[in-house]
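Form 12-C: Joint structure prediction
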Amino acid sequence: MFREFEIVKNISIDKDIFVLKLKNEPYIKGLPGQFAMIRINNSYDPLLLRPFSFYKISSDTIEFLYQVKGKGTYLLSKKRERDRLRILAPLGTNFPLPEKNEKITIIGGGMGIAPLSFLLDLLPEGVKIYSFIGFYTKVSKKLWKNFEERSDYFLITTEDGSIGERGKILDFIENLEEFNRIYACGPISMLKELWKRVEDKSKLYISLEERMGCGIGICLGCIFPGKERNLHICKDGPVVSGVEVNFE
Amino acid sequence: MFREFEIVKNISIDKDIFVLKLKNEPYIKGLPGQFAMIRINNSYDPLLLRPFSFYKISSDTIEFLYQVKGKGTYLLSKKRERDRLRILAPLGTNFPLPEKNEKITIIGGGMGIAPLSFLLDLLPEGVKIYSFIGFYTKVSKKLWKNFEERSDYFLITTEDGSIGERGKILDFIENLEEFNRIYACGPISMLKELWKRVEDKSKLYISLEERMGCGIGICLGCIFPGKERNLHICKDGPVVSGVEVNFE
Amino acid sequence: MNSNLKIQVGSLVFKNPILLASGTSGFGKEISQFYPLEILGGFVTKSITLKPKKGNPPPRIWETYCGLLNSIGLENPGLEEFIYYEMPFLEKINTNIFVSIAGESIKEYQELAKNLKNLNISGIEINLSCPNVDRGGIQFGLDPDILYELTKSIVKISQKPVWVKLSPEVGKIIPVVNLVKDAGAEAVVIFNTFLGLAIDWKERKPVFKRIFAGLSGPAIKPLVLRYIWEVYEKSSIPIIGCGGIMEFGDVMEYILAGASLVEIGTANFINPNIGKEIILELENYFKEERIEDLVGLAHKRKEVSL
Amino acid sequence: MNSNLKIQVGSLVFKNPILLASGTSGFGKEISQFYPLEILGGFVTKSITLKPKKGNPPPRIWETYCGLLNSIGLENPGLEEFIYYEMPFLEKINTNIFVSIAGESIKEYQELAKNLKNLNISGIEINLSCPNVDRGGIQFGLDPDILYELTKSIVKISQKPVWVKLSPEVGKIIPVVNLVKDAGAEAVVIFNTFLGLAIDWKERKPVFKRIFAGLSGPAIKPLVLRYIWEVYEKSSIPIIGCGGIMEFGDVMEYILAGASLVEIGTANFINPNIGKEIILELENYFKEERIEDLVGLAHKRKEVSL
Ligand SMILES: Cc1cc2nc3c(=O)[nH]c(=O)nc-3n(C[C@H](O)[C@H](O)[C@H](O)COP(=O)(O)OP(=O)(O)OC[C@H]3O[C@@H](n4cnc5c(N)ncnc54)[C@H](O)[C@@H]3O)c2cc1C
Ligand SMILES: Cc1cc2nc3c(=O)[nH]c(=O)nc-3n(C[C@H](O)[C@H](O)[C@H](O)COP(=O)(O)OP(=O)(O)OC[C@H]3O[C@@H](n4cnc5c(N)ncnc54)[C@H](O)[C@@H]3O)c2cc1C
Ligand SMILES: Cc1cc2nc3c(=O)[nH]c(=O)nc-3n(C[C@H](O)[C@H](O)[C@H](O)COP(=O)(O)O)c2cc1C
Ligand SMILES: Cc1cc2nc3c(=O)[nH]c(=O)nc-3n(C[C@H](O)[C@H](O)[C@H](O)COP(=O)(O)O)c2cc1C
Ligand code: FES
Ligand code: FES
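Section 2 - Result
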């Protein structure tokens, strides 16, 4: 489960946003929503592995979509093809796939689109897909092409209006009850608002984020207040059902 | 003085032995015996810069010859062309060049050959050169070709006899007094024995090693007992005259 | 298995000196997906309390240079769930299992010991050093009277080997380890985490709600080693070293400085295989020598030339 | 120069909060080849003693994970040489120069202070915390009576601002800083190095001849910050923070936790330009705000929700 992979490419597709592509060898079978812990450096600074959701997996390659945030992602962005990375994967829960003919919506904010794009890749035919994705400002079309192409309905917003509609993505979704399933990933504030707006919380699947120490359930660092009990995002999540969490 | 250089190549030329070649831009003018402090990682583990003697400098490139010893040199060996390294250089004292027509000897042990090879490159014509270099075991000819080619007399030894004469290099040098200057770099035990054997210590120039904290004289870590006072190898050395040191 | 790695501490024999530290591998199930826990010298459980404990609110961890600050706050399922859901798994592992206990009062510690008495475990590690809770924990470890009484009564009640895990906050350590020894503990565990603090400077506030948190990881190794050295010089109680062990060489430093066993903590997060990997390296290194003979060896090899 | 960076500590004004720490930049000449020292808020000299001191035998330094152990042993040219060879250079630098003094007896400290009295320096930093010498140093810092008397007499003799540099070995720090304040010091410097140890496991012996050495560098930052926080909460003496500052963000952490000034030590070895680089970042960041207003700000922003 903790093995070394070779980088095929690691390129910037937008300001501070990169796609990391690894040779899928040794072979990993990961599902949408699941993630990998990546050891960035062959040293102890940075100390911890960093979590990233699967963005795309084929029999040949594994892809991640990531944004440079701090030291770890900065150093990651400097890696090049043929460099090797140790990766702990696959980890965590996945988005359950819908049945044929269901009507679903996919709601993504910022880098939260990564696991959702992977979900799109694997949806069975016949599913009616409504995609809503929001960014702070203009991003490259490379980031949302997959959503536009695969969705029956597609809407993009930016907070500054530089592309798509101006505003927050949730303001453009009127009726949430019409969907059989709602898939979401993005900033916690977005997830919270969404959770509050969805009546039947069992339809809602959200992917959570919290700082992770280990990714496998041994540090108890990745806590999220659950309905009944503490959720540990790396094990009980990152994908949880709306009924499991408690945003109050 | 502390600037970034691009790696042209970094290749193994023997077991655990590498040549690191940098683009000489910004331009450094370094002399034989002087050294550079190299920042290995863009992180604080390893924490300190690592010292390496100049192996060769041209207007286009700077070369180092190094052996993988621990974490720092291991990580250095993983760097590749187009990677960039921050380097503090040139630092320390250099081997004073002989006058034309002098008869000199160059005595190197192990990686100690690096600065001596650079010295050979810069010797004025007409100098009579006797080179003696010793290794523990067989090494690639790439390491000693320069010595063989440029010297009037050349001897190589290995402790296990796998190449050249079997034994320690100093055992094969009979008369040290015949030389106008003696240049040496290598293990401390070799330097000590040499120092004891040379009567006129002002003819002797040796390059010393000690763990370095800073390379520029501010940490006082690189102490070597001098005759009159403490020597700080990074500033008073690495090249010191035989009269300055005290091996008793 | 290499018998040169065998080592006795108090009344117990360990097949090698490598244990996993409390709170850094839960109750063993996760790590057992990476390697069989029975290859370990021993395993220390996450500290358990009498009642279930929810622990502290997020954020609970924060990275520092070569270090990890944590404020988990002893989240654990409590004694009862531990016995029903975790013991059956632990019981079957063929190595020394230590249950770490933490309480808010002497009585709670005693209650825990009573209930563990009949379980198939090797011993009890008393956690007197958790920096992340309000009551009990570290304060107990700093009060010599409580420390002594508590240890003594747990030894008596449990009738099993007892280890006491100390905090670097103890300060002068020799009187403390001597107390612990007199009270009947078979070993001291040096250390739990160091008190540390981080500021989220972009947010301009302390990272943790409880302000202070516990520092672990490679950063602390030289600090802990200093105490290992001192305790080995001046006391005769066996030492379990813990703090910043990442690699084989770190284990060697601890052993040579005087630790009989070591516990690996934070390193499990960075590499869940680390226990196994270090044991393999030990097996390789100790082909001819016995590890027992290296415990504290560096003390005989100091050249004091001041 | 950005006047938002200006800050007053005791009777002195600093153009910015960045100083270089004692023993990590000698007497300034080397670093001045990288940038003009006058851009610094201040400069603290290598500790000087009455007589020249050869310091400890090699090895003197050893790297640990994100840390540096040193056992320099106060090598310095002594008071006389300092005055003749180093002061003329230092005197000309247009910033606050502090001379760090260390002695083996109270009398030596006093003698040093007497001789510095007429020099053109801003103040004296009393080094009561060097872990690498036999007499004086750390022991003095741990004895409350000596600490008080010593500080008081230096304040009196020197008639200049006096700072006292403490060791993390002090343990309970509040009584100590209060003593120092009562004795008339204008600020405390928190901290000198931590006591640490390393074993050269291949050689199977302690790395250093003196066994223990002083740990500095990024590894210790969270440990020092914890004390900065505590002293700011519970005492009113101005704090000079020191320990593990590598980057701009580290300075921010210290300031927000309560330090008025910071001293950069080990980072000078890793990047001799670091002082300049951090000052440039500060100038950039403090376009609108005054750094003074951020000192200790994180204390107002803690949400204690336990
Ligand atoms: C399950 C999971 C999946 C993720 N998938 C992706 C992904 O596909 N693409 C992507 O770009 N990012 C993803 N993230 C976030 C990513 O892990 C962090 O951005 C990254 O760890 C930051 O590391 P750093 O060293 O660059 O930043 P640091 O210097 O450690 O921190 C910089 C900033 O990032 C935030 N941050 C740090 N760690 C985390 C974390 N674990 N979770 C959330 N925020 C964090 C900090 O609060 C801080 O503001 C995911 C996180 C989780 C938990
Ligand atoms: C002025 C000077 C010039 C040098 N030139 C060269 C050179 O041209 N080529 C080359 O291969 N090496 C050279 N060295 C030695 C080189 O600096 C060390 O081998 C290197 O720093 C080891 O780093 P590491 O992290 O790999 O090893 P570490 O893990 O730090 O140590 C591994 C081993 O290397 C030894 N070592 C570590 N640092 C030093 C040091 N500063 N000096 C001597 N031994 C050390 C240690 O004692 C230990 O045994 C030079 C050293 C000095 C002081
Ligand atoms: C996330 C985390 C949780 C911990 N929980 C406990 C605990 O429950 N009980 C305990 O005695 N020690 C606990 N510790 C301390 C470790 O057992 C160990 O003493 C400390 O981390 C130092 O070792 P290390 O540097 O190898 O991690 C915890 C440490 C961490 C990092
Ligand atoms: C090599 C070295 C030499 C030092 N010498 C002195 C000294 O002479 N006087 C002193 O007060 N502190 C001395 N110190 C301590 C530093 O000033 C500083 O307090 C300590 O290193 C912590 O800061 P840092 O982590 O930024 O290095 C020295 C530190 C190092 C690393
Ligand atoms: S990240 Fe460690 S328990 Fe989830
Ligand atoms: S390496 Fe720092 S003084 Fe020489």
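Section 3 - Comments
The helical segments of chain A are 71-77, 113-122, 141-150, 188-197. The first helix of chain A runs from residue 71 to 77.
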